[in-house]
Amino acid sequence: MKDNKLSHDITLEKALLKLKKNHPHISGTHLDIGSGTGNLIHRIQQQYNVTSSACDYTDAFMELDGIKVDIVDLNDGLLPYADACFDLITFTEVVEHLENHRAIIREAYRILKPNGVILITTPNVLNMKSRLRFLSNGFWSMFGPLHVGETAIESTGGHITPIPYPYLAHALMSAGFNMPKLHIDKIQCPSLLWLIPFCLPIHIVAALVWRKERNRYKTLDKHNAPIIRQINSLNMLLGRSILVLACKPNSPTI
After folding, report:
1. What is the pLDDT of residues 62-87, one digit of tens each?
2. How far apart, in whole angstroms, are the C-alpha atoms of residue 113 and residue 116?
3. Is residue 227 included in any domain, yes or no?
4. Run of H or E residues at 131
5. What CATH number does residue 147 fall under?
6. Is 109 inside a domain boundary?
7. How many Cα neighbours within 13 Å face the side chain of 236?
8. Res 149: pLDDT
9. Range(s) of the domain holding residue 137
10. Are 58 and 35 in contact, with CB atoms under 8 Å apart?
């Protein structure tokens, strides 16, 4: 099996490592949304006793024998699967390509079994390199000017939706998932260099802003505070991509 030409290999490796550490005993059924070459499916099947399914907007990239790709327009926000039929869903390097990631996350919740797990990865637009890039030219790192009529939507030119972690966590929890767990794939060296002069000012200004959000605007509360606290964590300031794990509760949340 060749390396995945559509994703950073190190991102998939770290994602699988974190999945295995947090959920070592997954078995049953697995869906890979945006399956690409099938590299992640291949790795999942090496680690877990699962039966894997694949869906993508095309089957042209699939290199894994024995895997049929269900052709799905993910921008329609619908997945052609029955309720509660998967134990694991992987959704790596895809959400940034979608027009409506929240609809697919709601669908993922629907088709996951109770106690099922979803793994999502996406570029971290809140690292220091990305924040400075946005400050200087208005574009996050890994997101730039878009060609009108772009057809290679699987490429970096198809990155149409930058999703800061708090918004991804909000989408997951609004769909019904438990509080997600945040990880990163690797520390980004340029971000580490920029962190040295900006770390203290960022934390001072953030403390003032959060106090206003909590006391005046009432937007910061016990439900979202754990997510907001991670915005200026070292993982967030330095990580290249974010790896997010979330579980569907055994019974619906109220």
Report:
1. 999 999 999 999 999 999 999 999 99
2. 5
3. no
4. helix 128-137
5. 3.40.50.150
6. yes
7. 18
8. 79
9. 9-187+240-247
10. no
CA distance 35 to 178: 25
Task: Please state the rounded mean pLDDT for residues 11-15.
Answer: 94
Instruction: Spell out a b/e string for 114-138, using b for 16 or more CB atoms within 10 Å of the CB, else e.
Output: eebbbbbbbbbbbbbbbbebbeeee
Backbone angles phi, psi at 206, to 5 degrees: -60, -40
Tokens found for residue 69: 């790709």
The verdict on residue 37 lying in a domain is: yes
Confidence of residue 156 (pLDDT cuts 50, 70, 90): confident
This prediction has a pTM of: 0.94
Question: What is the distance between the alpha carbons of residues 41 and 32, in angstroms, rounded to a whole number?
Answer: 7
pLDDT in tens, 164-203: 999 999 999 999 999 999 999 999 999 999 999 999 999 9
Concatenated DSSP letters of 132-152: HHHHHHS--TT--PPPTT---
Partners of 88 in the β-ladder: 30, 117
Are 87 and 29 in contact, with CB atoms under 8 Å apart? Answer: yes
Q: How confident is the model at residue 154 (pLDDT cuts 50, 70, 90)?
A: confident
Q: How many CB atoms lie within 10 A of CB 23?
A: 17
When divided into structural domains, the chain yields a total of: 1
Q: Is residue 83 part of a domain?
A: yes
Q: How far apart are CA 197 and CA 120, in angstroms?
A: 31
